[in-house]
């Protein structure tokens, strides 16, 4: 029997982001900040941090630039902007263009939530959540598209990641903390990512969604306490814990790397299998 030829590939840099330029909206705290840390440590040369509060951006950038294991010359840059306003998104793009002529990775992570009884959920809150979690994500991607296209190729496509939630895949919180607008917005933004994957794929931009479960963050902590607390929620998950900073950072690095080059329009659920456990989030 003839011996089959075996051709091995070089996978040594399959998860490297060496020299890449990234923009993280909502990057001054929580999942955005953890992700920015992962991007820098995976080799990005520039990571732009943006959120509404300038002081929060500056504090985040100072912490990121103090990381001991980022590449020589790598830098985090603060660009405060209110992503709920299209004029601010356009200004954000112009500020980024002062530092770079292209962007390789856009993590559209800015978002808000609101909890209230069904009969008491205010119209203004619904509009605010939908505008920030869906509309602003679309226009952020639209305005950054020329920079994302600049260096993108079939072999090295640019990446867009959007933050959804398991609440947009299964049923979200109910009762007095019901998150109707949040859950609807996260389902919408994940489906938006699928549509944009088809639209932007031929332009060498891959679009994927991330659907986190409970991670201890400022936005989630209040709801987590009202849902039983960290210990109770951990025990209800099949892997017996909640999300950790490295979980979101690793997912973002993977979806930004060569290793995910054939993923487009997918949703990565980060909840330890809780979504399959049959209980409400």
TrEMBL record:
Gene3D superfamilies attached to this UniProt entry: NAD(P)-binding Rossmann-like Domain
Keywords on record: NADP, Oxidoreductase
Coiled-coil ranges from the UniProt annotation: none
A Pfam family: adh_short
Keyword Oxidoreductase assigned: yes
GO MF entries: oxidoreductase activity
InterPro entries, per database record: NAD(P)-bd_dom_sf, Sc_DH/Rdtase_CS, SDR_fam, Sec_Metab_Biosynth_SDR
PANTHER family: 7-ALPHA-HYDROXYSTEROID DEHYDROGENASE, OXIDOREDUCTASE, SHORT-CHAIN DEHYDROGENASE_REDUCTASE FAMILY (AFU_ORTHOLOGUE AFUA_1G14540)
Family: Belongs to the short-chain dehydrogenases/reductases (SDR) family.
UniProt protein name: Bile acid 7-dehydroxylase 1/3
Originating species: Lepidopterella palustris CBS 459.81
């Amino acid at each position: 029997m003839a011996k089959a030829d075996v051709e091995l590939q070089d996978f040594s840099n399959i998860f490297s982001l060496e020299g890449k330029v990234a923009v993280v909206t909502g990057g001054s705290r929580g999942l955005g900040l953890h992700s920015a840390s992962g991007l820098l440590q995976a080799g990005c040369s520039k990571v732009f941090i943006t959120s509404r509060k300038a002081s929060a951006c500056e504090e985040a950038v100072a912490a990121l630039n103090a990381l001991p294991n980022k590449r020589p010359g790598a830098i985090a840059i603060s660009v405060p902007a209110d992503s709920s306003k299209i004029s601010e998104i356009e200004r954000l793009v112009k500020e980024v263009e002062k530092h770079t002529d292209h962007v390789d990775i856009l993590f559209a992570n800015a978002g808000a939530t609101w909890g209230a009884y069904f009969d008491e959920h205010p119209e203004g809150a619904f509009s605010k959540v939908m505008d920030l979690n869906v509309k602003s994500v679309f226009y952020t991607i639209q305005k950054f598209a020329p920079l994302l296209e600049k260096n993108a190729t079939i072999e090295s496509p640019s990446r867009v990641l959007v933050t959804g939630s398991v609440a947009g895949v299964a049923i979200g919180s109910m009762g007095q903390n019901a998150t109707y607008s949040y859950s609807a917005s996260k389902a919408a933004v994940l489906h938006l990512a699928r549509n944009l994957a088809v639209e932007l794929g031929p332009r060498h931009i891959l679009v994927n969604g991330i659907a986190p479960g409970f991670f201890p963050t400022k936005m989630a902590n209040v709801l987590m306490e009202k849902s039983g607390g960290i210990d109770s929620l951990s025990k209800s998950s099949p892997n017996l814990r909640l999300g950790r900073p490295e979980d979101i950072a690793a997912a973002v690095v993977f979806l930004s790397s060569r290793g995910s080059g054939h993923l487009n329009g997918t949703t990565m659920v980060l909840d330890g299998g809780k979504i399959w456990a049959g209980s409400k989030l």
